[in-house]
Amino acid sequence: MTLPVSPCVVDVDALMAGVRERAALRRAGMSPDGALGLVSVRPDRARSLARGAGPAITAAKRLVVRAQHHFLADLADQLSRALFDAQADRRRIARDIAELRGEITRVSSEPRG
User: Fold this and answer.
1) Residue 28 to residue 22: CA distance in whole angstroms
2) More confident of the two residues 103 and 15
3) Is residue 24 in a domain?
4) Which of 36, 39, 40, 83 has the smallest CB count inside 10 Å?
């Protein structure tokens, strides 16, 4: 029995480079898909123990925290994506430089004639 051959070709090296890059970002505390993990806004922690006015203060604190949460989460997500893209660009440029150096070495070692 023979298995069908898939017409698409997968560049395993490029795929693994992407996996390694994402793993490195996760080890550094960043996520390429979402927030950096540095912003943690928890409405359940916004409470007041003051007598009498405590419930009103708690409600106000939670309202402010909820309003900030969406802004901060979006900001963290944008920052994470920008950092991920910058790292990917840096790695791509480093690969291009290495390729050019190899090409220069190859061309300079060829006999002239």
Assistant:
1) 10
2) 103
3) yes
4) 40
Picking from 9, 80, 10, 1, the residue whose alpha carbon sits closest to that of residue 38 is: 80
Domain membership of residue 3 (yes or no) is no
Domain membership of residue 97 as a residue range: 12-109
Half-sphere exposure at residue 7, Cβ-oriented, CA atoms within 13 angstroms: 0
d(CA 59, CA 51): 14
Record the pTM.
Answer: 0.44
Question: Rounded to whole angstroms, how far apart are CA atoms 73 and 38?
Answer: 10
Q: Token pair of 64, please?
A: 């402010």
Number of domains in the chain: 1
**1 domain-assigned:** no
Of 45-59, 69-83, 89-103, where does mean pLDDT reach its minimum? 45-59
